[in-house]
Amino acid sequence: MAYPLNLRLIKYSTMRTILLKQVRFILFLLFIPLISSAQPLYVQTRPVMPPVYMTEVNMKGYILVEEEWQPEDGQYRYTGCRWIKMRKGYAWKPGYWKRHPKHGERWVSGRWINGKPKNG
User: What pTM was estimated for this model as a whole?
Assistant: First the structure.
């Protein structure tokens, strides 16, 4: 059955509108986790680092990450005291607590930086 030209244009326009709305909705759903995870977690009191018992171990090609925290379910979970493989040409910058005057404190994760670590 041959449709008149006007009816074909209306069908195409309607299908295109529906498809664009679906694509926008899918993109919106994909970006929700990015928006929600972009907010840093602040705490009024730093969590206490659990006692760590380690023997003197020198693992060649690895460094010890002593203190590290990961935000989880509205609080910080201790994930430190682990060995990580060194990366050639990079130095490990340890994580630290950063104070915000109104919100409290948040953990800034350790990371690899290009070059040698600075003293002090």
Answer: 0.58
